Amino acid sequence: MKTSILFLTFIIFLTIKWTSCEPDEITKEINNEVKKIVTEAGEKVNKEISQKVNENNQEPCTSDDCSNNGSCIGTKQQKFCICNLGFAGDNCSERLCDPAIQCNGRGICFGTTKKFTCMCGLGFTGEACEKNVKMSDEKENNKIN
């Protein structure tokens, strides 16, 4: 269980890190490796769960139970979807926010396209980093030249 939590934390880190990057060859390679690791881990866990499930007559979930090619772990009654990069939610049906769109390219966003928070870069403020922060006259006069 600790390994699963650590792995999910790693996936969340990668998701946040790459939501602000343009895909390139390295990112594609890493995404493919992450997908491979997630798939292998999911298959191993599902095999163990299937053994337990068969004892209780419960049907294991499949990737069809998750949207956007997510991997499913558990049973139809108690499922857990591991989402691909760029997706979130119980069924992987929500897109992660895009800082270029939700934060006007002036900050980092956390959350989904429907519910997000922007952490604005220096010089910007507002819910979507849409406002310029103006320096006060006092700060302007205290600049060191």
From TrEMBL:
Disulfide pairings = 83-92, 120-129
PROSITE patterns in alphabetical order: EGF_1, EGF_2, EGF_3
Ion transport found in the keyword field = no
| Signal sequence, renumbered to the chain | 1-21
What are the residue boundaries of the EGF-like domain, all occurrences included?
57-93, 94-130
Q: Which keywords are on file for this protein?
A: Disulfide bond, EGF-like domain, Signal
Q: What is this protein called?
A: EGF-like domain-containing protein
Among InterPro entries, the record links this protein to: EGF
